[in-house]
Specification:
The chain is α+β, with helices and mostly antiparallel strands and 429 residues long. The chain contains eight helices and 20 strands. It folds into two domains: 304 residues, Zn peptidases (Aminopeptidase, 3-Layer(aba) Sandwich); 110 residues, Alpha-Beta Plaits, CATH 3.30.70.360. The strands form six sheets. The protein has a six-stranded mixed β-sheet with strand order 1-2-6-3-7-19, sandwiched between helices. Strands 13-15-9-16 form a four-stranded antiparallel β-sheet. Helix 1 runs antiparallel to helix 3, helix 3 packs across helix 8 and helix 5 packs across helix 6. It is elongated and about 80 Å long. The two termini are 33 Å apart. Bound molecules: 2-acetamido-2-deoxy-beta-D-glucopyranose (4 copies). One 2-acetamido-2-deoxy-beta-D-glucopyranose (NAG) binds next to loops.
Amino acid sequence: MKTTIPRLLLASSALHLGALAYTVRPHQQQQQAIIAAPGFDDDASAPSLPQPPYRDDLLSLHKDLVTIPSISSQETDAGLFLAKYLVKRGWFVDLQVVPPLNINGANSNNTERESKRANVLAFPASARHAVPRLLVTSHIDVVPPYISYSTNSTDGKIDSYTLISGRGSVDAKASVAAQIIAVEELLANNEVSEKDVSFLFVVGEETHGDGMKFFASNLDDRVKFQSVIYGEPTENKLACGHKGMGGGTVHAKGKAGHSGYPWLGKSATELLVRVLVKLVDADLGSSERFGNTTVNIGTIEGGVAANVIPKDASAKLAIRVAAGNQSTGSELVRQKVEQILKETDEDAFTLTWAEGYGPVECECDVDGFETMVANYGTDVPNFKGDHVSYLYGPGSILVAHGDDEALQVRDLEAAVEGYKKLIKHALRD
Ligand SMILES: *[C@@H]1O[C@H](CO)[C@@H](O)[C@H](O)[C@H]1NC(C)=O
Ligand SMILES: *[C@@H]1O[C@H](CO)[C@@H](O)[C@H](O)[C@H]1NC(C)=O
Ligand SMILES: *[C@@H]1O[C@H](CO)[C@@H](O)[C@H](O)[C@H]1NC(C)=O
Ligand SMILES: *[C@@H]1O[C@H](CO)[C@@H](O)[C@H](O)[C@H]1NC(C)=O
């Protein structure tokens, strides 16, 4: 069923929290802009940076978010926390329940809790009947395993250089916290209008993008956002876009036999290895903005024993697509891969291609931002439409899924300032 904002959700949603809305909290003082370079600074003699008035609010929201585990498919608690947090601060909140995700395949049974995982959608309570021009969005799910929140402060004191660690501390709970504080600052200072802004915090970004896809497919056709700001780790640089994604499984079919008589059989593993080398070396398309298409051979399987000519072999590939556009890029690469398989052995190979997309362009022509191009996937292609997309957020993707996921306080604070600038740009007339 499709409905309009603010009843974007099924009106019967048991988790609807709008009725709990309090009044908007008192306005705060405007603060100084913080300028910080990306990367950790280990120079102990570095001058301390001014502390923005929102530091405590920002750090405590970030800490609460990171402390709640929310590995994809288990986002219920994080969503509820965020909903209550926003309601308390005067937001009108809808929880859009997203169907459970069977990450472990058809055999995994979802608990009742997992079946209440929800996208969190919020509007300033006073403007809940307006159709906002801007959607500020990020995701609340994280990759496994859970890593608890910690800082490297030894005396309990926090300064601009304090390092904050934990799963999601960067990807993307840093974005979520900075976005919320930035929007609240702008509203409090009347720098944007309440009717113009809305939040969407989705589930499932790290796996199938099912949270964003569900939101997009249930949105009323009459709702047209002018701009969408996506929060992902870009080291506080404005992304001009990111590579696309393609890939799938290459199957090689041979003929079994005794290993002493290779000419009587046909080795599937040997064929596979030969074709994989060709694929890695091939020019699968490039572009000035996105560079080269790259191939990751994620898994290889094949054969049954050392002394048997293997009949079957397969490899799973993840291909980062740099050529074509969002709708054509994946297909362009698929055709090139098919061609190479055919040239190598007309009969041996079959390709199972996962649905993919080409390079995704984002708007990055905004004064005052360094720019970058990302090699990872995001929810941007999962929400198609005529809106302008911006991709920006604190922390580095290079630590995002690692054991050392972390960022400094100043990165978070710089992101608040960055989001404020970006939001004002998106809402300029
Ligand atoms: C915490 O780590 C950051 C980044 O490496 C460093 O700049 C800072 O000095 C460290 N703080 C303490 C108290 O060790
Ligand atoms: C899922 O539930 C079904 C029936 O309720 C049960 O037979 C099956 O073993 C369960 N699977 C798992 C992985 O728990
Ligand atoms: C892209 O691939 C070409 C060869 O096909 C190579 O010369 C070039 O260095 C690659 N560029 C990057 C950025 O890796
Ligand atoms: C992508 O490229 C194709 C072919 O060049 C073109 O027809 C199509 O309009 C482009 N789509 C977008 C979204 O730019």
